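thread: overnight batch results

M.L. [08:02]
morning all. the overnight job finished for the chain we discussed friday. pasting input first so we're all looking at the same thing
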Amino acid sequence: MSVTAAQGFVAAGVACGVKESGDPDLALVATADGRPVAAAAVFTANKMTAAPVVTSAAHLTATGGRAAAVVLNSGNANAATGEVGRDHAEAMCRAVAAELGCTTEQVLVCSTGLIGIPLPIDAIVAGTPALVAARQADGGSAAAEAIRTTDTHRKETVVRVGDAVVGGMAKGAAMLAPNMATMLAVLTTDAAAEPHELSRMLQRGVATSFNALVTDGCTSTNDTVILLASGAAGPVDDDELAAAVAQACADLALQMAGDAEGATKVVRLVVTGAASDAEARAGARKIAMSALCKCSWYGQDPYWGRLASELGSADIEFDPARVAISYGGVMVADGGVTIAHDAAAVADHMAQRELDITADLGLGRGHAVVLTNDLTHAYIDENMGTS
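M.L. [08:03]
and the structure it wrote out:
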């Protein structure tokens, strides 16, 4: 049931005509009774901020962190659309609020798709009554389906925590780079928590998941992660709930990495032995954004020199005589030079769908993990135009 696994939530997904294909393109996640609950969100750091992000942030501020629903459309990002775009985002919230019986400010809004094209707001508003009427407790998968763009499949998760659960859905397949990605995610829990607690938990969870995900080094205009808490299951230990939120985020991020446009490999990059965690993150992200490294993974080539070169240019503390690099647990380089190793074992690992690569800088205790992928011809095919 994904995003409706938590008690007190309903969801729906319908086609309203945003996508010319006729595929589902309008989704709703709402409280079952239409009343607002504790809510928190994390948004894109891109200064080219889309209208839905501006609107949702303003609504959370106005309500003190309370929301009754999230309405999401795919097929059009409503970004780079000026004041008209902000009016359209408000219109989406207003249309849902009218059907649910809540205030406009108690509705959050997300959009994903092409940038710089006016939102077909008339189609969305006309489709809203059917969307709200379709909401049901097992509607999570329909909602997850309706937010897809270039995703090849819907992305859902459920994590149990005591007597409560954290459920979620997400979309994302490209423009994935800290901070966040061309991604939307809605998480729900039936644990009881206040908005400030949810905000702290969500920021921590995003930091080690969506903000540790790099596919193509591009940061989007619309990135949004929203967490709603109904409280229907009662209180849960704060640390346990935070861990469950982080696990749900990590699961969705891994699914996004696996579905990255054109990708044939999911790569878990570990940089350890750095002077600090921050320097380890910088080094890992430098490798993850390297077209040379990505191409070598596509070619199943354990070309460790490319990784070392990226680390050496990452503007972090670095000593080539201390570097060690491993593929699938097999060390291929130590002290900055190639060492004898089981080449067959490395080749077997490179042929797998999921790669584990570790670079040890040998300088300190700094540690970071980044999820990324390879670069293939299919990525270029997908991104040559806007159609």
